[in-house]
TrEMBL record:
Residues 248-257 have a biased composition (Basic and acidic residues). PANTHER family: DNA (CYTOSINE-5)-METHYLTRANSFERASE DRM2, DNA CYTOSINE-5- -METHYLTRANSFERASE 3-RELATED. This is DNA (cytosine-5-)-methyltransferase. Residues 43-65, 157-176, 248-282 are annotated as: Disordered. Pfam families: DNA_methylase. Residues 114-155 form the UBA domain. Its main location: nucleus.
Length: 631
DNA sequence: ACCAAGATGACGATCTCG
DNA sequence: CGAGATCGTCATCTTGGT
């Protein structure tokens, strides 16, 4: 619980910035069709043939048909109504960019409004502290955006020249010199901003760009009437994307200086000596680099050089692990700081998880349709029975065990004697049980645990995903409790879509019921090859069924035990399929999870130690990828 | 009688946040 | 310092089939 409930509607200016961004993103998306991947697939043409036949999935290399354009735009998060309206107004053969520009205008217009919370959000999104924002609004009046901005900027400049967005990003030894240059040239630009300069700076920041990005853009593009804000915004977006591409396409060995400099932290508040001593802290709100419909989006970060090489990797585990665990995980995954996200900011159920990955973070978008955001939206039938004194709008984390039918009975018996309003003591008992066991109201005085298919929906899986395959109800509950929240993962993986228009090769460790695969499928990223490792036979069946039912054109190979997957075997598989583009998986959390009273022994526990197998395998894949690229 | 699978309840600690 | 949340494990009992 945090004291400040944020408005779920993004403010108009930030939205404007995002729309601008999307425009550029789609432009690049279209251009990226003929750009080469990391792997120079000899049989690329063959693969293309296989995948062009699959429905709307892979976008074509040439000019997209209007249907494909429509699908792509929906994926990008534009509303179907606006897309249809734009196509209608400009004709089906209009230039893509014209269509997108038109949609952008509708979107901006329809979201313009003001409210106190929006004003606050607006400045929170720019990285200012909530307390100061509220104070500034109080002093200058909420309509006086300019004055508030000025007050906040000067206040921020006084105490620390650094920019909030970069606060939690480690500027490690790996950072390019250009970043250092950005930083040093930046401060002066900000402090001596002339009025014209300052106005543009503020406008850009209003759009959600950081002070750093904005001032750099002004420096590069110049100021004055001939340079529009849109031009500057485009410049920033282009720079962001170019940087992402550069980071991954450049050979890290060539650009990395041989001398390993000690970690430099320019313009940082003095931190206690070595960064390793300082344990990782969970962000509040737990939204990582940002989630859809919430302010505070961060679109760039700097990865340690070691992490900036193929393949992409994506590791997941519980956020609330014992102290020090995430530091260890991060240190074994090339010092990439974890991205902690609570899925309650994306769907109707909480799921606090940490994700360590080397994916780009700009250009993320949500898969459609977005998940229901509240309990009542997710389960409309519960509204009728939901007592007024149960204030929950979100469910707690879906666990591996469910409440018993007896508990439902006990709750009914506790409430039945009272007509409308039960006494406080009864209410307290019932609410406590409802929260503890994640119960929903399915009848008069009847609070019942979630059914497996309801969990599937909450977690972003297709209905009946875990049905069949020899799975009992108990096994379904267990497997679902151990799974990804698909919408969250898909949001993170969405950046892969423009990078792999012809599909990707995936190594999926600890696959479970295939959360990663479902995410990629929902993103319509074709899976050329999936090598899946999953110990549970019924889970393997579920993935196999999914593979067949969704008519996957690619190859699925399943293994049972990661410990049996030797380094030689991995190399063999990579040679066979041309390497892996993505290594994804969440290792067992048994010995990390808070609910475990018996063996919460940390990363060295019997099951959770398999994390090191993830590391071993990822290392082999990275090394082999390097060798394969050389030859 | 026997077995396999499901159902149930007892079992705290360790975090974070306000 | 108190409130609240947490991809859990285990022994035992019940159920349903042969």
């Amino acid at each position: 619980m945090h004291g400040f409930v944020r408005n779920s509607v993004s403010n108009a200016n930030l939205c404007d910035g995002l729309v601008q961004y999307r425009v550029l993103f789609v432009k690049l998306f279209m251009q990226a069709q003929d750009s080469a991947d990391w792997n120079s697939d000899d049989d690329l043409d063959l693969q293309i043939d296989n995948y062009q036949s699959s429905p709307p999935s892979s976008p074509p290399a040439a000019v997209p048909s209007s249907d494909e354009l429509f699908a792509t735009l929906v994926d990008m998060g534009f509303s179907p109504e606006n897309i249809a309206r734009a196509i209608d107004e400009h004709g089906p053969n209009a230039d893509t960019v014209v269509i997108i520009d038109a949609i952008s205008k509708y979107t901006v217009n329809c979201e313009a409004s003001s409210s106190k919370s929006k004003t606050i959000d607006h400045f929170l999104a720019m990285g200012f502290e909530e307390e100061k924002v509220i104070k500034a609004i109080h002093e200058h009046g909420e309509d006086n955006i300019e004055e508030i901005a000025n007050a906040l900027i000067s206040s921020a400049a006084e105490e620390s020249p650094k920019i909030k967005e970069e606060e939690d990003i480690e500027w490690s030894e790996s950072d390019d010199e250009k970043y250092a240059n950005f930083l040093s040239s930046d401060d002066e630009k900000v402090s001596d901003s002339s009025s014209e300069n300052g106005n543009q700076l503020r406008s850009l920041m209003n759009m959600g760009f950081s002070e750093l990005e904005a001032s750099l853009a002004i420096e590069r593009c110049g100021t004055g009437e001939d340079v529009s804000i849109a031009d500057l915004a485009d410049f920033i977006c282009a720079a962001q994307i170019a940087r992402e591409f550069d980071e991954f396409h450049a050979d890290p060995e060539e650009q990395k200086p041989n001398v390993k400099k000690r970690r430099i932290e320019p313009r940082r508040e003095p931190r206690s000596s070595a960064a390793d001593d300082e344990p990782l802290r969970l962000p509040n709100p737990m939204i990582g680099f940002g989630v859809p419909n919430e302010p505070g989006l961060i679109t760039q970060r700097s990865l340690p050089a070691m992490a900036r090489m193929p393949p992409f990797f994506y590791y997941e585990n519980v956020a609330l692990a014992p102290k020090g665990v995430w530091d260890t995980i991060s240190s074994h995954l090339y010092d990439v700081p974890p991205e902690f996200v609570d899925s309650k900011y994306i769907c109707a159920a909480a799921r606090k998880r940490g994700y360590v990955h080397n994916l780009p973070i700009s250009g993320r978008y949500q898969v459609q349709p977005p998940p229901k955001y509240t309990i009542s939206e997710a389960f409309p039938l519960t509204k009728k029975w939901w007592p007024e004194w149960d204030k929950r709008t979100k469910l707690n984390c879906i666990l591996t065990v469910n409440a018993s039918a007896q508990l439902t009975n006990r709750i009914r018996l506790a409430l039945e004697p009272y007509g409308g309003e039960p006494p406080e003591s009864k209410k307290k008992y019932v609410i406590e049980q409802c929260k503890k066991w994640n119960l929903v109201w399915v009848g008069k005085n009847k609070a019942a645990p979630l059914e497996p298919d309801e969990m599937e929906t909450l977690l972003g899986f297709p209905r009946n995903h875990t049905r069949g395959g020899g799975m009992s109800r108990t096994e379904r509950l267990k497997s679902l409790g151990n799974s990804f929240q698909v919408d969250t993962v898909a949001y993170h993986l969405s950046v892969l879509k423009p990078l792999f228009p012809y599909g990707i090769n995936v190594l999926s460790l600890f696959t479970g019921i295939g959360g990663g695969e479902v995410a990629l499928h929902r993103l319509q990223i074709p899976m050329k090859t999936v090598v899946s490792v999953e110990i549970s036979a019924v889970n393997r069946n579920i993935l196999k069924d999914f593979w067949e039912q969704t008519n996957q054109k690619g190859t699925l190979i399943e293994f049972a035990d990661v410990q049996d997957l030797s380094n030689e075997k991995i190399v063999e598989l990579m040679k066979q399929f041309g390497g892996f583009d993505l290594v994804i998986g969440g290792s067992p959390c048994n010995n990390l999870a808070g609910g475990n009273r018996v063996s919460r022994s940390g990363l060295e526990g019997d099951q959770s130690c398999l994390f090191y197998e993830y590391c071993r395998i990822l290392d082999v894949v990275r090394e082999t990828t390097k060798t394969m690229r050389r030859s």
